[in-house]
Amino acid sequence: MTIAFDEEGFLRDLSAWSTELAVEIAAAEGITLTEAHLEIITVVRDFYHQYQLSPAMRPLVKAVTLALGNDKGKSIYLMKLFPGSPAKLIAKIGGLPKPDNCL
Amino acid sequence: MSAKKSILIINQSAPYGSSNGRESLDLALTCSIFEMPVSLLFVGDGLYQLINNQSPEQLQMKKHEAMLSALPMYDIDQIYVTAEDLSENDLTENDLAMPVTLIQRDVIASLIQQNDSVLTF
Amino acid sequence: MTLHVINKTPSNLPLYHRMLNGLSAGDGILLIEDAVYAGLSAHQALFEGLPIDIKLGALEADIQARGLTHRLSPTFTLVNDKAFVQLSCEHDKVVSWY
């Protein structure tokens, strides 16, 4: 079975996602997935299910703060886990569409 | 440093029948990323975007009310609806997907005046 | 017998008036897409005074999508896609108002 990705590496069929697949996508991005990554991915997947949007940075920080508290709801914490562009990387590893308006 | 320009987005289209609602939402979210103050006015048919219990699975479209309810997460909480539009449709605030600020129709002119740019969808 | 299919919101009053003007006894009206908002009880004045045997329907998928399932006036029947096809066959003509 082949799993389809778009030209930027985002999963085409959102239902094809699994934690195992996330580990693979993350590895391709040079990230070794840990529990700390996964709890953020869970928050973002919940956000997507509620709002049908992949969050940009600001709502991402807000959602993480609400779910996991102030210590984790900081851009610096998210940047450490997902270096570069956290909103985009989390969506990619979490099997969600690329956030719109992503800078 | 000059202050950021404020924008008022007037929504006067029903959801699903055209892409206006989606385009307006896209614009609102983009403006919020640039930290521009954004207000949204839902007027006329635009009110229908906010009706709750939408279930567009059969149309294979995204649930519009779900995306709108994300606006506060993007720090957009100036959302206006006119009392006249609600009553002309026998609807109340309980029929809406999210908290809104109710205004009278004659306040629209001053909303337009107060904002630096106004776009309609 | 003609089936009249309309797809714009009731704020397009002239369109509704053109449709209503074209009705004959025994015809049917089907609300689809954005026209399903005309099925809200608030807009029933539009359909008052029609020849009594006009049948009123609204497309189920469009009603559900827009959150109107429990807000539709009881004078309308919910029509699914299959019933839509059937209705189109039962009437000699289908006229679209858009």
Overview of the structural elements:
The complex is a heterotrimer of chains A (103), B (121) and C (98). With 103 residues, chain A is mainly α. Chain A contains five helices and no strands. Chain B is of the alpha/beta class and 121 residues long. Chain B has a single domain, classed as Hypothetical Protein Ychn, Chain: A (3-Layer(aba) Sandwich). Helices cover 26% and strands 18% of the residues of chain B. Chain B has a five-stranded parallel sheet with strand order 4-3-2-1-5, with helices on both faces. In chain C, 37% of the residues are buried. Chain C has one domain (2-97): Hypothetical Protein Ychn, Chain: A, CATH 3.40.1260. Chain C is α/β, with parallel strands linked by helices and 98 residues long. The model of chain C has no long low-confidence stretch (mean pLDDT 95). Chain C starts with a strand and ends with a strand. The chains are: A mainly alpha (103), B alpha/beta (121), C alpha/beta (98).
Task: Summarize the model shown.
Chain C: InterPro entries: DsrEFH-like (IPR027396), Sulphur_relay_TusB/DsrH (IPR007215). Chain C: This is Sulfurtransferase complex subunit TusB. The complex is a heterotrimer of chains A (103), B (121) and C (98). By secondary structure, chain A is mostly helical.
Task: Present the secondary structure layout.
The complex is a heterotrimer of chains A (103), B (121) and C (98).
Chain A: H1 19-28, H2 35-51, H3 57-68, H4 75-81, H5 86-93
Helix pairs in contact in A: 2-3
Chain B: E1 7-11, H1 20-33, E2 38-42, H2 64-68, E3 78-82, H3 83-88, E4 101-103, H4 108-114, E5 117-120
Parallel strand pairs in B: 1-2, 1-5, 2-3, 3-4
Chain C: E1 2-6, H1 13-21, E2 28-31, E3 55-59, H2 60-65, E4 77-79, H3 81-90, E5 93-97
Parallel strand pairs in C: 1-2, 1-5, 2-3, 3-4
Keywords for this entry:
heterotrimer, A: mainly alpha, Arc Repressor Mutant, subunit A, 5 helices, C: 98 residues, alpha/beta, Hypothetical Protein Ychn, Chain: A, 3 helices
